[in-house]
Records
---
Amino acid sequence: MKKLVSLILVLLMAMSLVSVSAVAEDGSHKLTVWCWDPAFNIYAMKEAAKLYKEIDPAFELDVIETPWNDLQTKLTTAGMAGDYSTLPDIFLCQDNAFQKNVLAFPDMFNDLTASGVDFSQFGAAKTAYSVVDGKNYGVPFDNGAVIQCVRTDILEQAGYTVADLTDIDWDRYIAIGEDVLAKTGKPMLSSTAGEPDMIMMMLQSAGASLFDAQGKPAIAGNEALKKAMDVYTTMVKKGILVEVTGWDGYIGTLVNSTVAGTINGCWILASIQTAKDQSGKWAVTNMPKLPGVEGATNYSNNGGSSWAVSSNCKNTALAYDFMSKIWGGSVAFYEDILPSSGALATYLPAGKSTVYSQPQEFFGGDTVFTKITEYAGKIPSNYTGAYYYEARNAVAVAMTTILGGGDVDAALAEAQSTVEFAQGV
Amino acid sequence: MKRRLVSILTYTFLTVTAVFSVFPLLWMAISATNTSQVVLSGSLVPGTHLYDNYLALLQNQPVWRAMGNSFTYSIGQTLLAMVICSLAGYGFEVFHTRNKDRLMSLLLMAMMVPLAATMVPLFQMMGKMGLLNTAIGFVLPSVSTPFLIMMFRQSARSFPHDIIEAARIDGLNELQIFFRMFFPTMRATYAAALTIVFMNAWNNYLWPKVIMQTNDSMTMPMLTANLMSGYVVDYGMLMLAVLLSTLPTVIIFFLLQKSFTEGIAGAIKG
């Protein structure tokens, strides 16, 4: 018995020792960052730290790898508990969730409007994601500009080139898709069943949102949304778009040559390039626009994230200086991270760099990065607000209902009331 | 004839369910030996990339530190939970007070509350106690669970009270009776409890993720989640990490399999 009691005591003491060593020291030149993806965000952050060290040799950066879902859980828990002491100095936030978090926990964020970061140097639509009541709360980072990637070899079999798919509308796209399917047996696109990404991309391409300017849901009777739903269901019914289960299934259709292309945020380039045997067979162009919808364009956004400085930051002067001099002021930094990570900036001066205009062998020698930076400047802004994810989910349910043969207006009205219920309207 | 038919149907059913249960594990093991692209193509042929995946994993994530942390936290949590819950379960059965059954019902009700609902108040509590980002804060909410207390209480019912009386007459105090008489007789229950607690502790994800703030405190489930968070997921490397993460619980389960079934059966029979 004594042995057991001593074992427990030793264990407790050992654990308290572990805890002591786990507490980070707080130096005046040190910043702590939460973000995810070692090949992308974490890599970029560490490169930024290397460059900033040239300005401030005592600078130290501690990156704590935190997947986005966990980061959101940690923000929510800290926010609801009112205890911000665990937050890092800087954290990365998905653009779609940025306004939601600022509106829910305004004390958690530092207002960056007067921080020295020149926000006019970033794409307007991108910056808009982290603006609440005219104040900037985020420094834009990676680009989510939508691109259409196509397999030129498959298109060629059906007698088309990438030029036939450039600057077109969805009606033309469906016509080409039917032809490609008939001649090659391959669908044009794939999408994860139950995920409304494609609908959201179409919606934003026409500058439309799921909410009006007052933040009220604008789902029922939304003409752009109805048109997007119509295009999507038509493509599924005609077999031009094949729905698959889960993200892995979606990536599988790209790398296994199941489909002739994809439409997604430009970060999809990294996944496409994992199929090394397909080098030279891919091309990049813009997405089709919604036909007959006012304000429709061939440009949209999907995904992307921005950096926030938390209210727990002990040294805001250092954080602001780091953000403005590197993330919002160094073309060299964006040139540095592009080749290894494929992290495309929304910092507009970087788009003019010669590194961005290098031809990419995988995409038939095209200057895809310059192209994407150009697209990024043409994306219409949309409003996400505090209930974006609720609205997205409601639209996803409506999409499934419509695909199952349900009435479009009734399904959208149902989605509208679901969001209104969530908002407590 | 009828018996034979029943037996054929039983075995067919068992074979089908066994295939469904074993297939994901088999797929995981095969995928750990393939490249990401081969995994995505749905191949079921073992590949030659196991070592490459291992090297990539070592380069990307602190896998051995995470393994060490997982072991430290899980063993600590398991030992504490076993001592605390078995003492509580034994106490509930052997000692008699007026309100003990009401207290037990209250405990059982607590079993219905999911962690997500108690996370914010727990976080606040730990914050006020200065236990955020500490190993004690990590294990404390799990060292006493209503399920384990109930399991030990049920087992204690089969422990003859005459032995307790005899031991008291022989001059043993209550703690001595517990450790010298109850503890050795209830090995099967302890083995079952050990398997359950260790597995839960090893797979614990949400709470550690919320309370632990440094890379040094990363555990295996956190490491696996990190591997899935990127724009590009290396499925071969991911499956190897999942395989490594599964092995300890599988080994413990197989080692204690016999006692586990006995212990669970004992607890249910009462």
---
Amino acid sequence: MWVARGKYILDRLIRGLPIILAIVVVNFFLIRLAPGDAAQVLAGEAGAASEQYMEQIRRQFGLDQPLYVQFFSYMKNIALFDLGYSFRHNREVSSLIFERLGATALLMTAAMIVSVSLGIVLGAVAAIRDRTLISHIITVFAVVSYATPLFWIGLMFIIVFSIHLGWFPTSGIITVGADYTGLRAMLDVLHHLVLPALALSCFYIALYTRLMRASMLETLGLDFIKTARAKGLGDRKIVVRHALRNAILPVLTMAGVQVSAMLGGSVIIESVFGWPGLGLLAFESLFARDLNLLLGIFFLSSILVVVTNAVVDVIYTIVDPRIELKRKRAHG
Amino acid sequence: MAAENLLSVERIRTEFRSTRGAWFPVVDEVDLSVAAGETLAVVGESGCGKSMLAHSIMRLLPPRIARSGGGRVMLDGRDLLALSEAEMRGVRGKDVSMIFQEPMTSLNPLMPVGRQIVESILEHDDCSRADANRRGLELMDLVGIPEARARFDQYPHHLSGGMRQRIVIAIALACRPKVLIADEPTTALDVTIQAQVLALIDRLKSELGMGVILITHDLGVVAEWAQRVMVMYAGRKVEEADAESFFRGPKHPYSRALLASVPRPEDVLSGIVRPLAEIPGAVPPMDRLGQGCAFYQRCDRRSDACLAAAPPLQQGDRHNAVACIHSEP
């Protein structure tokens, strides 16, 4: 079984290659539609925006080459997993990215776990207690947090929980200058993680709550629930053994799709909370016209999404025995 | 017909809430009884209340839209309608079991079929999981599932419709119930499988000494498997008879119309072509019944007297009864 799952993932990843390639190509050209380049920004910051200086920078970074030359050299480098050089940071893009990857992965994993589990619980409760006060409260909460912009939630969290209540730090990932080690350092990171993770989760909690509620209501009306009741099972057993697992399936599908959207959301949250992850890096490099770095981040994100989708598919086969691991053939 | 009744339902009434909030009956003062080793067929068109009757006996209707409007369901000297919900859970699946119409959807798709049978055993009987598993396998043998041991861990989607309905039956029989209510158990199955499943229910009925309430709209099934017949119309019992006299001479105009609308294979074989008889119209919506006979609009024997009041059930010999003022030919 596990061998089959391993093979399936490998198969899916190979199938993901053309997708990643397409993303890389489109990104390369798309990003150059934005006005301005690194030379202009660097020259502007140096306060010496003379034509000669900009020419010099462009020559140095190869920006004076025709677009197709730049493109082919970029593709060649990508094929060798060389993501290039960040003009802005004067460092290898790959080392920059890997330095920041952990923070984003931590933030997203936390937000994912919080939103999926809370969404499932809230949605299930709202469905089981349908048309009661608690279900109305959950529904209203879901609608409100679904409709609230992400950056606003982040700012409000900071104002309420950091500034007024003083429960959590306003920004960053560690307490600067504290130099904690071991368990203290871990707790410090978790303390910093709470607000950005919750803020990022809000929208998804709402999304999964609504989805779960609808799915649970539908499941509770299905015939096998009646069979379970006719067996003499109590409500709790019916929900836990029969309804819950069936109702979770659509939430799982949605969560898989939303991984990429969440990556986008983390750009905003990381900027608001000064969380030193990929999102913040992307945000900064966008304004610095640090195109190599930006493309590197996009490249990594697309790989991340393809991998996550494959993993979600495998999780799906574990939860739902009806879905078999079929390695679809292109021909026949 | 001297056998003692296992289950007797007395003047049961079930009400639904209309969208306007008023309560109206969907099962109206129905009596029935079933003895050990006996099959009582409940027949009628869609919407006549036969399924509601079954659900009312099992108390499976959602309380938000349905309530009991009186009557008793006596089993072993206990009135099931008077039990608490917790006590009723001890009855469901243990003393009275039910099988449903749709074998394709009445099993949990994410749980191995063996576990779905065993779950019922563990719920009602104090036994170890190993014992329950063994009994589950025996039940799968009993309902005629080949290679029970291999099937035990399979999921419903691995099984055909007929096999799934056998699993549903095994679940229902897991705790040797006294009464089995089969709500159109074969409607969704093709004809050969239908016959196998009904033969299975009939065999198990004799082996286990159960009483069976067989809900169906297929009079061919009734003729073959039931000892007694009860006809329902608009939530009421309009006729009850032993199967033999029912098929020889149904008393109620509705029963006669039902029988007349059964296609006759012998006509086809002898080359006679005639239009299939049908009963014009449909069962009236139950929240808009007038005070007269509910069948009045569709009846070929109606008279003004029918509109005065709903005709009372006239008791004949033994169980036989009919609710029509024009029942005599």
